[in-house]
Design brief:
By secondary structure, this protein is an all-alpha fold. It has 6 helices and no strands. The radius of gyration is 20 Å and the shape is elongated.
Length: 182
């Protein structure tokens, strides 16, 4: 069981690293948005590439950091049963949700996105605007990253939930450090 718990810790560490790196894009996105607004309304200038970069950064933050969000249990949920449940019942709900909903949806998203992303890479798809960012194929690749990071974090959640259901609480020494840094 230690190797399975170690796998969960490794997945958590990977998504923690990805999430913390991607978080810097939020700052860049805000700064560029301020520059775009000042340029447009003060100087009457508009640079399409800067405007598109905001869309790119927003998409990357949302898609690539999904695993990080799941790691920190920050996805929106309806806590009708979950909120007041015991740790064991929460673990059962999480395990059921990962196996029945999350992993099949991630696999389906990967399956449906793959041809779409491959087609974009084949032609090196770019913006429809000449002065736009000519890297739409890279942005579309984030759909695959989304599916992968969310699925592996789901596997980590399933491992931790299974350990709790079996009466073997998952001990993560890094969890206290992550929680205090948030």
């Amino acid at each position: 069981m230690q190797s399975v718990a170690s796998l969960a810790r490794a997945i958590d560490a990977l998504n923690e690293l990805i999430g913390r790196a991607i978080a810097w894009l939020a700052l860049a996105m805000v700064l560029i948005q301020v520059i775009v607004v000042v340029m447009r309304y003060v100087f009457g200038l508009s640079i399409l590439m800067m405007q598109e970069s905001i869309w790119y950064m927003h998409s990357i933050i949302f898609l690539v950091a999904a695993g990080y969000t799941l790691l920190h249990n920050a996805h929106v949920r309806v806590d009708i049963l979950y909120g007041g449940a015991s740790d064991k019942l929460k673990a059962k709900i999480d395990l059921f949700g990962v196996i029945i909903i999350l992993l099949p949806v991630c696999v389906m998203l990967w399956w449906v996105s793959w041809p779409y992303v491959v087609a974009a890479w084949k032609v090196r798809e770019g913006s429809v605007e000449v002065s736009g960012i000519q890297a739409v194929y890279l942005l579309k690749s984030c759909m695959l990253i989304f599916s992968a990071t969310l699925a592996v974090q789901g596997i980590s959640l399933a491992i931790k939930s299974l350990l709790i259901v079996m009466g073997l609480p998952f001990q993560d020494p890094e969890q206290d450090n992550r929680s205090s840094k948030l």
